[in-house]
Write a structure and sequence with these properties.
Length: 299
């Protein structure tokens, strides 16, 4: 792949140039995501900028016509997201140009992203490999059927700051690598629950304000029953209000539980990776799996 990316690109009648996503007006980023129907608020963009890096495509009068971001998790792995080009600029090569710039900035890095249908072909052309489907479930939350008893010997409680290290260690195999910075940041802005067997954490869950309401994720658990046990208090907390869950589980008891909570599948995206060993963990290897993502961009 040729990673010599030109500094300028002629796009139709436009010429766009790169700028750092950190240096542009938040409202311009917000307007860009609104233009493609994404629900992000200005605060959501700011939270993403606090954690990641990115480039925007600016025209000659500094209007933001495109954006792309990456979120490093350690030295050699990053998630990618927020790839958007303004509708009037699409299919002119701008998204590819932004992506190539990011790839050229991060030599030796493996990547994971969640691709919309519109972007899948672009990522394939950059050698990304399709891994699995993400089901974006959302709606007005309602209380699911009566709770099963907690798994034997388990205790469900709100997480405390002193639990954060246990969450980071538990999450790492499910996510692919440790993500201490991101989890610490999510911890600050989220309602967090943990399920403990004795002293050992066997599941955790977080929910926070995002987009049209709240998002429930990440959820990490050893088994589906434990995932449901830590998801339930968030659904109770947001009953009657907009709630969203991004999950790889499209069938089975976790998917049924999410549907029962009034959150049908709204859309799907596709997890794709570039590089080895950076897909999500799976259930059943007694290391825990991610039942819900923090977000499509951060994984
Ligand atoms: C997806 C998106 C970023 C693509 O942006 P773009 O500027 O049109 O992409 P490019 O012009 O760089 O196109 C790159 C490749 O995708 C192809 N492509 C672009 N739009 C396409 C479409 N609607 N259908 C099929 N192929 C398409 C181009 O032909 C090109 O293919 P090539 O590399 O084989 O020549 C843009 O449509 C968008 O912002 N969509 C809404 C937000 C979104 O879905 N973002 C992706 C998040 S993962």
């Amino acid at each position: 792949m040729d990673l010599k990316v030109p500094e300028k690109l002629h796009v139709d009648a436009f010429q766009v140039h790169f700028a750092d996503v950190a240096d542009v007006d938040l409202e311009q980023l917000h307007a860009l995501s609104i233009a493609v129907g994404w629900p992000h608020r200005a605060e959501d963009w700011q939270a993403l900028r606090d954690l990641g890096h990115g480039f925007v495509a600016l025209d000659d009068i500094d209007r933001v016509l495109g954006a792309a971001m990456w979120f490093p998790h350690g030295e050699t792995f990053a998630t990618l997201g927020m790839l958007i080009t303004s509708p009037r600029l699409q299919t002119n090569g701008a998204a590819k140009w932004l992506m190539q710039r990011i790839l050229s900035e991060c030599p030796g890095t493996s990547f994971r992203l969640n691709a919309t249908r519109a972007a899948r072909r672009l990522y394939r052309s950059l050698d990304f490999v399709q891994q699995r489907t993400v089901f974006q479930c959302q709606g007005k939350a309602r209380k699911p059927g009566p709770a099963h008893e907690l798994p034997a010997g388990c205790d469900l409680r709100r997480l405390r700051a002193s639990d954060l290290d246990a969450v980071i260690a538990f999450d790492a195999p499910a996510f692919a690598v440790p993500r201490p910075v991101h989890l610490a940041s999510l911890f600050e802005s989220s309602l967090c629950y943990g399920l403990f067997r004795g002293e050992a954490l066997v599941a955790y869950s977080m929910s926070r304000a995002f987009g049209r309401g709240h998002v429930l994720g990440p959820i990490g658990a050893l088994s589906v029953d434990e995932a449901i046990a830590v998801a339930r208090p968030h659904v109770d907390a947001h009953t009657g209000r907009f709630l969203r869950v991004d999950t790889h589980f499209g069938t089975g008891p976790f998917a049924s539980f999410i549907q029962d909570c009034g959150l049908p599948v709204f859309d799907t995206v596709t997890t794709m990776t570039l590089g080895e060993g950076v897909d999500y963990g799976t259930v059943g290897d007694d290391k825990g799996a991610l039942f819900a993502l923090a977000s499509q961009s951060m994984g």
